[in-house]
Automatic annotation (TrEMBL):
It comes from Nitrosopumilus adriaticus. This is Peptidase M10 metallopeptidase domain-containing protein. The chain crosses the membrane at residues 44-63. It comes from the Archaea. Residues 6-33 form a coiled coil. InterPro entries: MetalloPept_cat_dom_sf (IPR024079), Pept_M10_metallopeptidase (IPR001818), Pept_M10A (IPR021190).
């Protein structure tokens, strides 16, 4: 009996041992399972982070796109209202026969040929017609006029009823004297702010009257004649009372970058409106 009992005890112990091995195995398997799950969680977390980063980048991109669109919105809506040109003060010439003196001080000693091109930007009566489709301003059936010189441009509107007399008789010549209505100085010096040209007008604020204008063309010795003529054409617009245009394709835009650097219909219409009395105002271009 004792033997049997012992045997039974042995068997029990064996069973226990077996159970212990089983439990250890189970623990190892569970641990392994936990390990895999932990690894999976880490994997999911990394994937989640990547998705979060990518969607963040996409969101910022779309947001910025939207912002650009909002900022650029005025390019879309602008043509509907039209570009505009600001106006300043006017000359009060009173007499139609009054000669308007423009003197050129050639400090930079630019060539005769360049001087002729500068004079042309004031004196020319030449008109160019450009297709509106090419200008992105309308259908191919329409065209726009451009004027090479201010004299020719003003001729178009001088017969109209104006409040202030526009200069119609221009006298452009070289002179080292400061006399004259407009003095154009061609200098070698570079403008520190990077301007190619600058116009400063003496005005009677109360009357809104321009008394005298000084135009400076910087680094004139380095500019070719046609470029200089474009700058003078722009600066003469200021000397006559126009300010800048919002249209990047206009000669009166703050930077000359147009393929047609000539006096536009809008420049002329703005000048007409200014000399009809709309000083320090904003003229909306018709196209
Ligand atoms: Zn003179
Ligand atoms: Zn300007």
């Amino acid at each position: 009996m004792v033997y049997i009992y012992l045997n039974k005890q042995n068997q029990n112990q064996e069973n226990l041992e077996h159970r212990l091995i089983q439990l250890t195995n189970e623990i190892i398997t569970t641990n392994k399972k936990l390990d895999t799950e932990l690894h999976n969680i880490k994997k999911y977390f990394v994937v989640f982070l990547i998705i979060l980063t990518v969607s963040g980048v996409i969101f910022l991109y779309i947001f910025n796109q939207n912002q650009t669109f909002i900022e650029g919105g005025h390019f879309v809506t602008q043509p509907l209202i039209g570009d505009s040109i600001k106006t300043g003060f006017t000359w009060h010439l009173y007499d139609k026969e009054r000669v308007f003196h423009i003197h050129i001080k050639n400090h930079a000693q630019v060539s005769e040929q360049s001087l002729d091109m500068i004079k042309d930007s004031i004196m020319s009566k030449k008109i160019i017609e450009v297709n509106d489709l090419q200008l992105h301003k309308g259908p191919a059936t329409n065209s726009s006029k451009f004027y090479i010189g201010w004299n020719g441009a003003i001729n178009e509107i001088s017969s109209r009823e104006l409040k202030h007399q526009l200069p119609t008789r221009f006298h452009v010549h070289e002179s080292m004297s400061d006399e004259g209505d407009v003095t154009i100085m061609l200098v070698d010096e570079r403008n520190l702010e990077g301007y190619s040209g600058y116009t400063r007008s003496m005005v009677d604020q109360e009357k809104g009257q321009i008394l005298k204008s000084y135009i400076i063309i910087y680094e004139a010795n380095k500019l070719d004649g046609s470029k200089m003529a474009n700058i003078v054409r722009h600066e003469m617009g200021h000397a006559l009372g126009l300010q800048h245009s919002t249209d990047p394709d206009d000669i009166m835009y703050q930077k000359i970058q147009t393929d047609n650097p000539y006096i536009s219909e809008c420049n002329l219409n703005a000048l007409e409106s200014l000399y009809k009395g709309k000083k320090m105002s904003e003229f909306i271009c018709k196209k």
